[in-house]
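User: Hi! Is it possible to get a structure for several chains at once, not just one? Here's what I have:
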Amino acid sequence: MHITDTFEPKRLLAADPDITARLAARQAEIAAGASVSTRTRAGLMMGGAVLATAALASDAFAQGLPSMVVDILNFALTLEHLEAEFYVTGVGTSGLIPSDMRAPFDQIRKHEVAHVAFLRGVLGSAAIAKPTFDFTGGSGSGNGPFADVFRNGQTFAAVAQAFEDTGVRAYKGQAANLMGHNDVLRAALRIHSVEARHASQVRRMRGQKGWITLSNSGGLPEAAQATYKGESNTFQFILGQADSNTQAMTEAFDETLTKSQVLAIVAPFIAGGR
Amino acid sequence: MTHTHDLPGEAALSTGLGSAWGGSNRREFLMLAAKGAAALGVAGSMSGCVIAAAGTKKLDFRDDFGILNFAYALECLESRFYTKVCEAPPRDLRPGELQVLQDIRDHEIAHRRFLKRSLQILRVEVPMSVWPGIDFTSRSSVLNTAKAFEDLGVAGYNGAGTRIRLAEFLTIAGKIVSVEARHAAAIRDMLNPNSRDFAGDDVIDEMGMDRALEPGEVLAQVQKYFAEPYRAVGL
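Assistant: Yes, the chains can be modeled jointly so their relative placement is included. Here is the combined structure:
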């Protein structure tokens, strides 16, 4: 099995021999304090000369990726926009978040805002615009099942748990589709485990276990049950249940969700623009 | 040593791995299995050879089975650690903390058993564990060790992801790593409750990304917990 990688820095350099000299000059300018675009900064901060190289080469990165990968990154960006705006709003609403939850939620806010910046940077002009959201889950009515989401700290934490547990499953479901695009896959995996840390923390702050038992919703109302559908699976890979402890087996393996399953879950939180 | 019998990969399939496989997936698996078996030297098991010379455990990272064996070693280490912790828990554990450690123990055992069953004859035996510098009577020592293991597990799976060739293995690794990350956050929150530490700036960078470590870096960090050294090739 060999997946052709259409974004290959060596190929990029081979295709445009002059690019190396221009990149070297541009990197020197940046080192000297020249301003850089969000995309370039994202590439540089990703720790990879590879992405930085691509980002510096104007729009080569997003243009060099197949549409499937661009679609996955925009799918991730949709979820990160949702989370970032949710936490920015929540943390900025005085009296909403109980004092013992403030530091963790502010840390999560910081990460989700960074994820948005990263994905927008990588996608460049291919990035989708931020949708408008309805965090009550009312599809724009402002009166969904979580109507008091920004008035009641417990409701806010409950919605946070649903977003984080869904986010973990969403990234996991796309990993195999990113094979062969190693820079993107590595970044996605590194974000995926951060979402899982968030999920564990939010669940524990709500008095739940940090992990998902069977397909239990972890104290969330019926409206959030789709987030946990299929989590009770005990058939991993080509093997049936490998452990006599069914509960532990389901907790030990988080399950995937497809893109369409995730979009159906978040649809009530999107008022428009997607 | 002769190789007149079935390929080890086919032996693995005939013992149950292959029943659910068909088409290109099966061919891919067979190819990988045969390659992995050859690389790991398990063909020797059919002609009476010793699987691996004493004192060396070879992990060949040129194929997925090297990575799975690497994961198996980490899961063995973790499950042994938590089993030992739960057999005689530190007396200064706080209410509810033993339950968390028991849950994590059960998850690591489930991971270990899954990997063992997946690898079958391609499995590289994991050396005995040793516990230098760990005080099992101390909550602080136990939790800080757990924190190091979980963070390292997350970084190890994250770093190995791009080496995996078979999509099914990548997805499985994803299913495991997020649970390791849930553990890491829980242990970190036990050490410093209601703080930013569950996903602290010491492990999450300014882009909001977790660590990813190459298998060689991870092996170097866990080597001291194994009685015999691992030798990594293909990195």
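The helical segments of chain B are 8-17, 23-40, 64-87, 97-119, 139-160, 167-191, 215-222. The beta strands of chain B are 57-60, 230-233.

User: Great, thank you!
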